[in-house]
Amino acid sequence: QSALTQPPSASGSPGQSVTISCTGTSSDVGGYNYVSWYQHHPAKAPKLIIYEVNKRPSGVPDRFSGSKSGNTASLTVSGLQAEDEADYYCSSYAGSNHWVFGGGTHLTVL
Amino acid sequence: EVQLVESGGGLVKPGGSLRLSCAASGFTFSSYSMNWLRQAPGKGLEWVSSISSSSTHIYYADSVKGRFTISRDNAKNSLFLQMDSLRAEDTGVYYCVCAGPGYWGQGTLVTVSS
Question: Could you say which of B99, B105, B106 has the minimum Cβ distance to residue A91?
Fold first, then answer.
């Protein structure tokens, strides 16, 4: 069982928006503004798309956005495109130099 | 350029052992905690183990506790995972991950089969 809880699947049609949640506790997600999101396509290394809750690394489209409320972080993908179909994982700092991870959400573009 | 390069994967029989290595470069390895995550065929990513920057704090998933040992050598910018008493369910791609800045390796495949 993963430390952070994500829905196993999400879906949306091209052009639509979809939000993926990541629920932790006050000891991780709720306690620190260090939530990251990764996009994982098969046979590739996961790619960082959001860090520190809502910051995007250079090169990541602004269609990807992050937010947090209490112990739940969220990733929103706007203007869905076919290439957004992938697995998405969240992680959070949990203190004592330790990070925890979610179990992943498979995003299907219908 | 940041690089995390895993090695040491392969085919091993149930009950056997493997030692994975991860060579880091392009960032200050000794400043960050490090993690091993794995992905079984057709499954999602699973966190396996983590070690703090100075090796003070070490954590394991229940599924590997007592069988796997994580370690690091900051002088050599290297992370290790000693895997003993391997089971079929340990099969998968193992990733070396620096979660702070979000660095991932390409992964190394471990197959446990008779």
Answer: B99
Token pair belonging to B59: 């954590």
Looking at the complex, report in whole angstroms how far the Cα of residue A79 sits from the nearest Cα belonging to chain B. Answer: 25
pLDDT tens over chain B, length 114 residues: 999 999 999 999 999 999 999 999 999 999 999 999 999 998 888 889 999 999 999 999 899 999 999 999 999 999 999 999 999 999 999 999 998 888 999 999 999 999
- Chain A positions in Cβ-Cβ contact with residue B46 (cut-off 8 Å): 2, 103
Place of tokens 């993690």: B35
Write the pLDDT tens digit of every residue in A64-87: 999 999 999 999 999 999 999 999
Distance CA A94, CA A98 (A): 5
Interface contact A89, partner B, CB < 8 A? yes
Q: Which residues of A53-68 are buried (b: 16+ CB within 10 A; e: fewer)?
A: bbebeeebeeebbbeb
- Does A99 contact B102 at a Cβ distance shorter than 8 Å? no
Cα–Cα distance, B40 to B63 (Å, whole number):
13
CB-CB contact of A90 with A3 (8 Å): no
Encoded tokens for A23: 């629920």
